[in-house]
Amino acid sequence: MNPLNLSVETSSPSKKFWLMSQNVAVVAKYAPFVVCLASGKLDEDAFRLLIALDAHFLREFETAYMKAEEYADDGDAKVAVSNLRRAVSDKLYRLNNSIAQDLGIYPTQEVLTNPAIMKYTCFLSDISDGKINGENVTDQIVTTSEMTRIAAYTVGAVAPCMRLYAFLSREFEPFLSLYGSDRPYYKNWMNIYSPLNFEKAAVQIEDLLDKLSVPLTEEDLEVLQKVYLQAMKLAIEFLFLQPICIPSVVPLSRLRDPKNQLFIFSDFDSTCTSLNTSILAPKSAYHPVSDNHTNQMSSLEIKDPRVAISLEYTKDYEKCIETLLPSEAKTFDLEYIYKSLEHLLELEKWANSKDKESGILMGMYINDIQCAGEHLVQDGCARFFQKVVGQREQLNVDLHILSHRWSSDFMRAAFSSAGCLADFMIHGHEFEYQRSVTRGVIVRRIESSLEKVQVFKGILTQNCKDTEFFSVYIGGGTVSDLLCLLEANVGIVIGSSEVVRKVGKRFGISFLPLSQGLVEVQREAESYGSSSAWKARTGVLYTVSGWSEIHAFILGIEPTPDFKIQQEAADF
Q1: Which ranges carry the Thiaminase-2/PQQC domain (predicted)?
Q2: CA-based nearest residue to 129, from 61, 81, 67, 58
């Protein structure tokens, strides 16, 4: 899924490919090089290398466009490719005669051994030479339309770079303008690589790609898609592998002292799951208790009680939220928020009691509960925790899942199917069983948002009495996570819940995209290399579009071959 939840059903190949790769493109915002550049803290040596590499990229683009121009059989397409080639030549001239000379850089003499740029430029050279999957398809060309296919592939290998850099330039332009203003070489660079110029170049090459794609067969379009996605992957890897001479605040796993324990907490519902499971009542999990177990309930009878309870709870919950909110926005005061959220306590306990009174929690087989929980954890969440578990000793990390609505058996099954249960502490309700069938009795570990934050703080206090620690809390779209989010060193909100934002803003809580927060922290950190730059209880929460951003923030880029945009890219 792309982070904006946009459909990839479009007649424009360039738009389709970009939408398919957006979920990974956002990861590029977390490259240490990009964060340092946006913060204005990129050292001059790293900036000099950036200019040299830019010049090398431009020369490779120029060469690729020359080849594409030869292969294009349409007159208009040839003109479009020629215009792009001239634009690249002009940009290279400006780069050489402004920034490069000011910094004493002579890109034509620069020895480039950067493995990331070599991977991309070799890939681009192969594609523009007609080498696809190790096979030289130019030997098979007998018609002019087949020549156009090579031109399309070549443009498809350049287009993702332009779109990615246009995206990043637009995201960080306010920071570059603000923080780079005191450095002349930043100013000159931004004049050449402004968001407007990047967007113009990206649109031009995307229009050309769409034009060249018109005569392609379905098979050709599949190859073009693979070329685009692989080029995007290599462009992002290039950014992550750029050297910098100052400590970066990202990824978190390298920033913090491994001697200090890292705690990662996460909510379950709508955070780890790809859907709201608060009304999930799978038919297979419910069997009425009787001597011979022959009575069977219909799916409607099974589902209706839970749905009715959920709808009633949601309606009362919204009313309660309105009553506890201050009439106008207040300055952030965490103690005031604690007192205000006490009003939710009785409602949250009521919802849990209704589950018991309805009888829907009686007569469930433990095997069916476990089956119902399987495959609920979304892929990005599962991959993240699998990676964390694999590096648990190096990271010195404790993992905890907290829920005030779900049973531990259900959540254990969910993470067991994701392959990382053994290294988790699951905090939820516990059913009492008789012969593997629920008796309708529940041992409630967490019943409200206040009890949830008490468990959160209790875990930290119990494990870190005399040692330093760092905590990350990941929450979804419920107000019940607010206190835990605010108490953590870094509170991360997945998605954009209107209720959470409304409540938060009325209480003086700020919501900042995590990638932008990283730029601020990089800029303001008093001691580079120290995770003390992140402060708890400040009233600032960080937003992300999905788990790929959390992965990049905490662990960095996923190493090849796991770092994939789509499975098709791995075939290249």
Answers
A1: 32-239
A2: 67
Section 229-244 average pLDDT: 92
The dihedrals phi and psi of 500, each to the nearest 5 degrees, come to -60, -45
One-letter amino acid at 356 equals K
| Token pair in block for residue 508 | 């003086």
Residues 253, 391 contacting (CB under 8 angstroms): yes
Pairing between β-strand 261-267 and β-strand 362-365 as defined by DSSP bridges: unpaired
Q: Which residue shows structure tokens 């038919």? A: 283
**Res 532: pLDDT:** 65
Convert the pLDDT of each residue in 457-508 to its tens digit: 999 999 887 788 999 999 977 888 999 999 999 999 998 788 889 899 999 9
Distance CA 394, CA 387 (A): 12
Q: Which two tokens stand for residue 405?
A: 């609505």
Which tokens belong to 572? 């290249």
The helix (run of H) or strand (run of E) holding residue 494 is strand 490-494
Please, which pLDDT band fits residue 275 given cuts at 50, 70 and 90?
Answer: low
* Cis before 184 (ω within 30): no
Q: Where are the beta strands (DSSP E) in 137-192?
A: none
Are 484 and 536 in contact, with CB atoms under 8 Å apart?
no
* 3-class DSSP assignment, residue 402: strand
- How far apart (Å, rounded) are the C-alpha atoms in residues 473 and 267? 8
Question: CB within 8 A of 462, min separation 6: which ones?
Answer: none
Strands 425-434 and 397-407: parallel
Other Cβ atoms less than 10 A from the Cβ of 352: the count is 18
Q: What is the CA radius of gyration of the chain?
A: 27
Q: 356: pLDDT confidence band, cut at 50, 70 and 90? A: low
CA 490 to chain centre: 16
Q: Is the distance from CB of 480 to CB of 448 less than 8 angstroms?
A: yes
Q: What is the pTM of this model?
A: 0.87
Q: What is the full DSSP assignment across 124-147?
A: HHHHHTTEETTEEGGGG--SHHHH
d(C-alpha 47, C-alpha 408), whole Å: 51
Going by the DSSP 8-state scheme, the letter that residue 96 receives in this structure is I
Mutual angle of helices 449-463 and 344-358, in 10-degree steps: 100
The rounded mean pLDDT for the chain is 82
Query: Is-contact 148 73, C-beta < 8 A?
Result: yes
Query: How distant, in Å, are the alpha carbons of 57, 280, 387, 546 from that of 381?
Result: 35, 20, 10, 9
Alpha helices (H) in 241-378, listed in sequence order: 252-255, 299-324, 334-341, 344-358, 366-373
**How far is residue 163's CA from residue 183's CA, in Å, rounded to a whole number?**
26
Provide, for the chain, the percentages of residues in helix, strand and coil under a 3-state DSSP scheme, each rounded to the nearest 5.
60, 10, 30
List, for residues 162-185, the tens digit of each pLDDT value.
Answer: 999 999 999 988 887 777 656 777
pLDDT at residue 288, as a whole number: 39
Compute the average pLDDT of residues 43-71: 89
**Per-residue confidence (pLDDT) for residue 91, from 0 to 100:** 87
* pLDDT greater than 60 at residue 131: yes
Q: Is the pLDDT of residue 256 over 70?
A: yes
Pick the range with the lowest mean pLDDT from 48-52, 162-166, 250-254: 48-52
